[in-house]
């Protein structure tokens, strides 16, 4: 097949618009008037960088002058090829500008740089990649490198391998100097450095990342000095951690085996112990000649040999795990119970290589099992006894709460009712079930007796839940289910958990309705008595004044009759006048006493220490006339003091002495003597 001529005749009849649209490279048609038409490839690429469809948005500003020169040449009928820098590629692009009728055709061809392809490939594989100059400065990185190292590409660009901020370390934790980094070694030796383990600090996560680094030097053809070094590294942190965990697990397993295993042994595929067997020899005391072949059975207790041999033969025939128990003779002749296990060791083809087994001393386990059985039995007895005790206590507590005459609430730390006895339910008109689970304050303690709101923070019960202090309230109200207040007195005591924190409270409540009623009745009686006393005092005061005037009149006329007619009438009339005078005197005395009582009730008492000797002297002066008339004698011995009001005490002593003088035995002179240490008549 002969190719057709590349001239215009070869494309005669081809639809130019269809060809323009089908080209895979970006193509633009520019008219002399400046109108631009883009094919599909150009439109798709331009839309990524320009919302208005500007063709020039594809190019770096430095390429614009060369493009403008090429367009001007095409408008003059010349074809130009311009090397340009495209914004989304590393490699330069080739822009062909050709003249067309009335304009210019611009064709862009971009060849991808192998380095750019390599960077994208490394990104896809999750491998970090850097390109470094001969002085190890980083010239180019991919996204994976920035992500693994915890820095942006801008932060990485320009850094070198000598920078101490890498904080590189070897797997053993020792410092990894910059001059020994794989990239530096590759540049120095011109040899590829493969799979070098390195730890670097990740600043974003503040952790260490483990890398596996390969550095490849690049040299220009014919040059002796390296041009660049390409470093590829993988993040093997998880693998490193897994390997470290496997090593730790292996060490723990080895330690566990060595700590718990009494005897470790191995046999050939046929089941014969192969020397040396140091642990077997040390435990049993058998020599190599004694335990080879089936000689090891001689160290097993005679009663257990048949079973041990049977189980071992079955394991050899089936290639399965060997597990049995028997008593093995120790070197001192004591038979020790052993748990024996053996596992077949296979190669990668499944062929039996050897048997590896252990004998574990069960003595301690047997003793522990027996001790555990004994302990369990004791614990069961204790639990049973404790359960019975708790049951008795629970029954007693239940009976106590049920039979208690006082109302009892239990609250949790939130103030929610956790229990209530029947007395509490009866007092407030609720069922026990309807009270449990309810906030106690909101249910029965929400208002004061006068109907004003009772804030929760002012409630003594809530305060005890907060500070744990016991509180006693003598007068308060709780609200009945039917809406009326019930007078109560209560004591609230906090309960505590094992840590000593308040976890609730117990409230013991007493219905004081009868007490309040009795107190009110008593107050009413006191009020009536006070009013009666006031009336009596008023009466006494009025009587003491109003009765004196008619008595004074009667007394005056009686005295006039006595003075005028004394001795002129018969003896009986004189006796009658004497009786009248005595009655007037007694009446006057009664009125004086009544007036004194009235004055006393209105007098404010002022108590003070008073010497009894002074009081007796004042009383003696008051009765001196009577003493002289009657021939009486008054003596006293009162060195002490008393607490009282002096004037009233003087009146009291005067009355006592006057009574002694009045009511004397006929024919004997009156006499008043104070008894030793006090007064007396």
Automatic annotation (TrEMBL):
Pfam family, one: PAS_4
Catalytic activity: ATP + protein L-histidine = ADP + protein N-phospho-L-histidine
Keyword terms: Coiled coil, Kinase, Phosphoprotein, Transferase
Cited CDD domains: HisKA, PAS
Top-level lineage group: Bacteria
All residue ranges annotated as the Histidine kinase domain in the record: 542-681
Translocase is among the record's keywords: no
Domain PAC: 194-248, 322-374, 471-524
EC number of the protein: 2.7.13.3
Protein transport is among the record's keywords: no
PROSITE patterns: HIS_KIN, PAC, PAS
Domain PAS: 135-172, 249-319, 400-468
Regions annotated as coiled coil: 362-389
InterPro entries per record: HATPase_C_sf (IPR036890), His_kinase_dom (IPR005467), HisK_dim/P_dom (IPR003661), HisK_dim/P_sf (IPR036097), PAC (IPR001610), PAS (IPR000014), PAS-assoc_C (IPR000700), PAS-like_dom_sf (IPR035965)
Stored NCBIfam families: sensory_box
Protein name: histidine kinase
UniProt organism field: Deinococcus actinosclerus
């Amino acid at each position: 097949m002969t190719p057709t001529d590349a001239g215009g005749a070869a494309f005669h009849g081809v639809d130019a618009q269809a060809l323009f649209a089908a080209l895979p490279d970006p193509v633009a048609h520019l008219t002399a008037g400046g109108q631009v038409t883009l094919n599909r490839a150009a439109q798709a690429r331009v839309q990524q960088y320009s919302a208005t469809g500007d063709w020039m948005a594809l190019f770096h500003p430095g390429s614009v002058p060369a493009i403008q020169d090429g367009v001007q040449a095409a408008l003059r009928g010349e074809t130009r090829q311009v090397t340009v820098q495209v914004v989304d590629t590393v490699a330069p692009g080739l822009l062909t500008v050709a003249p067309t009728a009335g304009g210019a055709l611009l064709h862009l061809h971009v060849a991808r740089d192998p380095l750019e392809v390599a960077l994208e490939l490394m990104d896809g594989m999750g491998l970090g990649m850097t390109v470094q100059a001969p002085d190890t400065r980083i010239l180019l990185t991919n996204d994976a490198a920035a992500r693994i190292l915890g820095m942006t590409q801008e932060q990485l660009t320009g850094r070198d391998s000598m920078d101490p901020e890498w904080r590189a370390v070897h797997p053993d934790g020792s410092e990894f100097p910059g001059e020994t980094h794989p990239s530096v070694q590759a540049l120095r030796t011109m040899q590829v450095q493969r799979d070098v383990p390195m730890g670097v600090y990740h600043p974003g996560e503040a952790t260490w990342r483990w890398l596996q680094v390969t550095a490849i030097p690049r040299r220009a053809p014919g040059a002796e000095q390296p041009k660049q070094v390409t470093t590829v590294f993988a993040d093997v942190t998880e693998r490193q951690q897994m390997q470290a965990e496997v090593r730790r697990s292996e060490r723990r397993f080895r330690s566990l085996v060595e700590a718990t295993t009494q005897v470790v042994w191995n046999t050939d595929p046929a089941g014969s112990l192969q020397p040396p067997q140091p642990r077997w020899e040390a435990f049993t005391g058998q020599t190599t000649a004694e335990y080879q072949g089936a000689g090891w059975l001689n160290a097993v207790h005679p009663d257990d040999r048949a079973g041990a041999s049977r189980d071992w033969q079955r394991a050899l025939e089936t290639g399965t795990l060997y597990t049995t128990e028997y008593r093995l003779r120790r070197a001192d002749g004591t038979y020790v119970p052993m748990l024996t296990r053996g596992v077949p060791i296979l190669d990668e083809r499944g062929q039996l290589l050897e048997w590896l087994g252990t004998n574990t001393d069960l003595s301690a386990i047997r003793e522990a099992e027996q001790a555990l059985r004994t302990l369990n039995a004791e614990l069961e007895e204790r639990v049973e006894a404790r359960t019975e005790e708790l049951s008795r206590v629970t029954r007693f507590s239940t009976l106590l709460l049920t039979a208690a005459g006082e109302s009892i609430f239990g609250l949790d730390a939130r103030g929610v009712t956790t229990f209530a006895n029947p007395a509490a339910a009866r007092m407030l008109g609720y069922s026990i079930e309807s009270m449990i689970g309810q906030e106690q304050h909101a249910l029965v303690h929400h208002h004061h007796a006068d109907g004003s709101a009772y804030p929760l923070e002012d409630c003594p019960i809530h305060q005890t839940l907060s500070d744990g202090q016991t509180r006693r309230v003598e007068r308060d109200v709780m609200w009945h289910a039917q809406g009326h207040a019930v007078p109560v007195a209560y004591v609230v005591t906090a309960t505590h958990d094992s840590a000593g924190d308040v976890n609730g409270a117990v409230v013991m409540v007493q219905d004081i309705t009868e007490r309040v009623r009795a107190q009110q009745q008593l107050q009413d009686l006191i009020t009536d008595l006070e009013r009666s006393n006031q009336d009596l005092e008023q009466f006494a005061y009025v009587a003491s004044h109003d009765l004196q005037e008619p008595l004074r009149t009667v007394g005056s006329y009686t005295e006039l009759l006595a003075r005028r007619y004394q001795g002129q009438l018969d003896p009986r009339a004189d006796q009658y006048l004497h009786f009248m005078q005595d009655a007037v005197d007694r009446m006057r005395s009664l009125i004086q006493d009544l007036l004194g009582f009235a004055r006393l009730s209105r007098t404010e008492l002022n108590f003070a220490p008073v010497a009894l000797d002074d009081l007796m002297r004042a009383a003696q002066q008051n009765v001196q006339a009577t003493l002289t008339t009657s021939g009486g004698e008054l003596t006293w011995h009162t060195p002490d003091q008393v607490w009282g009001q002096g004037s009233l005490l003087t009146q009291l002593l005067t009355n006592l002495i006057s009574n002694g003088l009045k009511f004397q035995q006929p024919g004997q002179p009156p006499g008043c003597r104070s008894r030793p240490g006090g007064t007396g008549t």
